[in-house]
Amino acid sequence: MHQLETILNGLSGYIIIILEFMGVFIIAISGIKGFYNYTKHSPETKRGLAKGLAVALEFKMGSEILRTVVVREWAEIVTVAGIIVLRAALAFLINWEIREEDQQELKRN
Among 89, 83, 11, 97, which Cα is nearest to 49's? Predict the structure, then answer.
């Protein structure tokens, strides 16, 4: 049983790092695309950036959820839970903003 726990902790650590990196990578790519679209005065700038940030937050939340597997103390659990709540709130707000943009686009057409 101890060996299985050791394997789970080690594997979780690697997966957490990979998910965090994927989130950062998506934010970077979205930011670069957003800046490029901004310089071209594209109407898709805001929506594209928001969608990229929403996807990145999903990866980052996945890493935080997985982090709950390896935490051992209540203080760590509370910290991780707080981070998850904040990221979920951000994801909700970004998705709400995307929906509002989509509705405004439909009204314009």
Answer: 97
- The enclosing H or E element of 1 equals none
Among all chains, which residue has been given the structure tokens 């957003």?
A: 34
SS3 73: coil
pLDDT in tens, 9-47: 889 999 999 999 999 999 999 999 999 999 999 988 989
Predicted TM-score (pTM) of this structure: 0.82
H/E element holding 72?
none
| Cβ–Cβ under 8 Å, residues 57 and 90 | yes
Instruction: Name every residue whose Cβ is closer than 8 Å to that of residue 76 and which is 6 or more positions away in sequence.
Output: none
Handedness of CA 89, 33, 108, 55 (dihedral sign): negative
pLDDT, tens digit (0-9, with 9 covering 90-100), for 77-98: 899 899 999 999 999 999 999 9
3-state secondary structure of 69: coil
